[in-house]
Amino acid sequence: MTDPPLIKNNIWKCVFAVSGIMVTLVVYGVLQEKIMRVPYGENKEFFKHSLFLVFCNRIMTSAVSAGFLVGSKKTLDPVVPIYKYCLISVSNILTTTCQYEALKYVSFPVQTLAKCAKMIPVMVWSTLIMQKRYRGRDYLIAVLVTIGCSVFVLYPAAADISPYNRGRESTVWGVSLMIGYLGFDGFTSTFQDKLFKGYDMEIHNQIFYTTLCSCILSLSGLVLQGHLLLAAEFVSRHNDCLYDIILLSTVATASQFFISYTIRTFGALTFATIMITRQLVSIMLSCLWFAHPLSWEQWIGAAIVFSALYAKSFLRSKPLEPSLPVHEQSERESASILNGNPR
């Protein structure tokens, strides 16, 4: 018979994990859309410097991961050649930049649902890089998700207009950027998995070096494009934008703690279910907060996607690798999530 205090303790742990993930990532999603799609100041100016957001996010994530390594007395030395960290970093920067830029042309609900299709590029990259094989059920779910996402993207409500462009051009650019996001994100996750399997690497070591590389690369990109001073000048004129960016970086970093805690405490299956629910809540909140109307075709597309994802979550029965302790397997499962790019 289960001990009642133990049950109560587990319930509180679950509430803590679910609340932390839902609050931080929902706020993260709302702030993304606010920064990129809502004008600031009396002159209605839009913030256009996506790479500056990447730079700010990575600075905070790098600092926190370094603090964790120092506090836990773990090594700060690189485990793999620096160029491999840089490869993940470049892919991750491109992923996040496409994600932010896409919000100029498509709404957050469209972007969030389109992210659900990331399993397709992950399957492709895993087949090419790691020679993995998937079951027919995995391909069926991937096809259903793709169909649902396609319906959602191709049949927007007429009243949902981008602040940067209007009509079909907006959709074409937005879809192109989301395809770039999915492709780069799939490569990032797969290459991270390959590094974890090939090296004895602690997860925060990878986070620190990849985000440190991202800081250097994104800063270099801002300087070369001449956007660093423009972005700094914009936030100096619009303090509310500065506060939004600081809060965005804070919740992005905080979400990593809750994600790691959830996977280690309850496992990847519970985490996947929470993340699917979070995406659904984010879409509904964005529709209410920013007045995004959904067409009846989009409701059908969303129903197809989330039904397939929940089915995938509950049907998942991946065995643990017997050669690894449970906590190390949990770290591997959370590796791509903890690399400074909350999903």
Automatic annotation (TrEMBL):
InterPro entries: EmrE-like, SCL35B1-4/HUT1. It comes from Thalictrum thalictroides. Signal peptide: none annotated. The chain crosses the membrane at residues 12-31, 51-70, 139-158, 170-187, 207-230, 242-261, 298-315. GO terms for molecular function: 3'-phosphoadenosine 5'-phosphosulfate transmembrane transporter activity; antiporter activity. Belongs to the nucleotide-sugar transporter family. UDP-galactose:UMP antiporter (TC 2.A.7.11) subfamily. Pfam families: UAA (PF08449). PANTHER family: ADENOSINE 3'-PHOSPHO 5'-PHOSPHOSULFATE TRANSPORTER 1 (PTHR10778:SF13), SOLUTE CARRIER FAMILY 35 MEMBER B (PTHR10778). It is a multi-pass membrane protein. It is found in: Membrane. One of its GO terms (cellular component) is endoplasmic reticulum membrane. Keywords: Antiport, Membrane, Sugar transport, Transmembrane, Transmembrane helix, Transport. This is UDP-galactose/UDP-glucose transporter.
